[in-house]
Amino acid sequence: MQQTPQSTRPSPVVMLVVAVVAGQAIALIVNAILTIIDPDSQELPPSAMIFLTFLFVLGAIWLLAAARGVYRGRAWPRGALVVAEVLAVIVSFTYLQMGDILVGVALLLSGGVVLVTLFTPALNSHLVQRRNRNIG
Which residues contact 102 (CB under 8 A, 6 or more apart)? Predict the structure, then answer.
């Protein structure tokens, strides 16, 4: 008897990581746009504003690539996301100390959720299952 292949639909934990990381990428794109059009950012030298916008866009591309990699079951995004999410958690404390509670809590929660879910058995089996399917 031939066994039917397991569902290729990712688990809810995988989808949670993908959604949160994609949301962070969208937030970086919004920050890039606001940096360009916000009158307060006009106080920055043009070269600094262009470089900051470039960093926001580059970070968004990196996060979107990592989210796609997690969805497709690749192993490489785990390390990249650990670094990005630890940075998000660290930056969240700066926002909380400055009194920007909404941004600080959003960074803290999104970074914490991704960091915790990156090491769950469901995500690990998703990555291993995809890797084994590509080998055999």
Answer: none
> What is d(CA 59, CA 121) in angstroms, rounded to the nearest whole number?
27
- Decide: helix, strand or coil at residue 69: helix
CA 70 to chain centre: 10
b/e map 49-59, b = 16+ CB within 10 Å? beebbeebbeb
Q: Which amino acid is at 18?
A: V
3-class SS of residue 1: coil
Instruction: Give 55-110 pLDDT, tens digit per residue.
Output: 999 999 999 999 999 999 998 999 999 999 999 999 999 999 999 999 999 999 99
Contact criterion met (CB below 8 Å) for 12 and 46? no
pTM comes to: 0.85
Q: Copy the structure tokens of residue 48.
A: 């600094």
Token representation of residue 61: 């591309």
